[in-house]
Amino acid sequence: MKRDFTSVAGADVACRRGYLYCAICVLSFPELRLIEESHARMREKMPYVPGFLSFRELPVMIKAYRKLRKKPSLLLVDGQGIAHPRGLGLASHAGVVLGLPTVGCAKSHLYGNYEVPGPERGSYSFLKVDGKNIGLVLRTRSKVKPLFVSPGHLVDLLVCRSVVLSTATRYKIPEPLRFAHRRAGHWAKSE
Asked: Which CATH number is 38's domain given?
C-alpha cells in the first residue's frame, strides 16, 4: 500500500444548465501548494440518482484527469469510496479506472452504521456494515460536523485518516477538495 505521497489532488464536479464541470486541482504534499489544475466539461447524460453518482460524474472526471501533465500520487474525491451500498462509490470507481490511490471524502452519510465521534479535531468513529469497518466518521475541525471518509482504491483506513487530517488544515474540507470545489463552481457559473 503506497504511503509516500508527494502530491494530493482533489476532484469535484458542478452541474449547471445541463452540463457537468469537473475541476481537478493538484497540490504538493505536505506543503499544499497548487501545482496544476485541469478542467473538463460534458453535457449531462443522466440525472442525479442516489447511489449511482459515478455513472453521472466519472466520465467528466476522467476527461479532466487525462489533461493533467503530472499525475498526482493520490486523489481525494467528493463522494464515497467503499462506504457505499454496492461497495463501489465514485472514489472507488475512479481509482479502479485510473489505477490511482483514491479516498472518498463526503459531507453526508450514505451507508453504514456509526456512533458520533467526539467533538475535537481528529476524533473519529468507524462506519460499519455487518461488523466490518468500511470507513470513518472523521472530525476535521473541533465542534464542526464530521466528514464521511472511506477508502476508494489502493489505500486503507489509516491512510485515509492521515491524508484527510493532513490536508484539512484550516477548514472542514481538505484543501485539494476546497480548491477543486471553488474552481468547478466558478467555471460553471461563468459559462
From this structure: 3.30.2170.10
The C-alpha atoms of residue 112 and residue 42 are separated, in whole angstroms, by 32
Pairwise CA distance, residues 136 & 148, whole Å:
6
> What is the separation, in whole angstroms, between the first and last Cα of the chain?
41
Torsion, Cα of 190, 33, 172, 76 (10° steps) = 80
- All three cell numbers of 15, joined, read 452541474
- Total domains present in the chain: 1
- Residue 71 falls inside a structural domain: yes
**Residue 155 counted as domain residue:** yes
Per-residue pLDDT tens digits for 55-111: 999 999 999 999 999 999 999 999 999 999 999 999 999 999 999 999 999 999 999
Q: Cα separation of 127 and 79, whole Å?
A: 15
In Å, what is the CA distance from 113 to each residue of 68, 127, 136, 138? 37, 5, 10, 14
